[in-house]
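Weekly structure sync - notes
Attendees: PM, LS, DV (DV joined late)
Agenda: review two folding runs queued last week.

Item 1: First target. Sequence and structure tokens pasted below for the record.
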Amino acid sequence: MADAAVAVSGHGKQTVTAQQLEDMKKELIELTTKHNMRLPVRSFMDDQTYKWRFGGPPDYTLANVFYLRGRTMNHHEGSLEQVVEDVVKTWEFERSHKLDVTEHKSTDGANFKIGANGAKMFSNVEAHEVGNYNVLLEPASESLWSKEMRTDWDGSHHAFKEAFTAFPWEVLKVFAGPPKVAFSWRHWAHFTGTYKGNEGKGQLLELTGFGTAVVSPELKLRDVEVFYNPDEFLLTLEGKRPTACQQKGHDSLGPMMPVVERKAMLAKSPQ
């Protein structure tokens, strides 16, 4: 859950040249100004010296470009949706890039636990050791997500890096505010790589679900539960389900059309 970024930017294994990075930074400026979009705020990245998993702080330029290109919601500044989205993106960033779990500031230390679909609830330390993907794929069928993979931080991340260039995440709607936040969410990616030998053709995969999070007065995460269908998602990646299976429930969750595309469509409509 939440956009993943690797050492240079984004999620996938592809190498980004210095020129491509500069072009993407220019695109970010255009997207934020032309479409009145706000870049996510991932806190606690440069407020002190941290122990980094990949040698230094991540560059989220690529992840941000794919996020702004494909997001379907454009929440206003100060909205609960925007606040929740920033908290989750900060949590993802810390979990993926800070080696020392005691340096994570988005979670409430020993009070933090997380699980999916009523399966095992992981402590802060346990979740950090196995990684976000393994925590959230704990309820998946063992035939789709192996027992060996469930304790393999690097292997679980590598599996999705091979499949996607970027895997953005957005909040769709917040139904209840602190101290127990309830919200719907969307993950999406273009399947341009491979997964378990199945080669993608660039098709859009969309994963939607619901979540609750108890937060401290300082908005630190304490008790997080996520609900979605992991088996259907993994079967789609393996090529055993059509991508349409990932689009169930869209009408109740959100418009499911990127803001950029909606604006372009409206601009072409007769006045």
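Item 2: Second target, run right after the first with the same settings.
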Amino acid sequence: MSELRMVLSPSATATRVIAIAESASGSETLMKARLSPEPAHPRAAQWLIEAVALWQGGPVRAALCAGASARTYVTRLYPEWFADFGNALYQLEVVEGRRARRVHRDAIALAGEFRDLRQLSLEMAGAR
């Protein structure tokens, strides 16, 4: 069975999102998105995570990236984004962006550079 992970990284110009499936055979990018800086609806991010869980048929382990450059955007957006830190469809944690190195197959190379979010997701896998 694979683990589903998502990382959301807000900034002044965009919110980047990546979804990754991790299985015994490795990890694979399922989705990349570059969205507007703030969601138009207070529950949009929660519903996005839940939609991936429902689509893929399993719970999502999600992270809201609060790296040094994104801290002000996370703290500004967090109260409106999530009512809690999860439910049956997802688990949410606020994390600080860090780098790790692992091999990863990116099936969606044309969507732009998401290496930092992919690495954070892979680090989440090792933090259990």
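Discussion on item 2: The longest helix spans residues 44-56.
Action: LS to circulate a short write-up before next sync.
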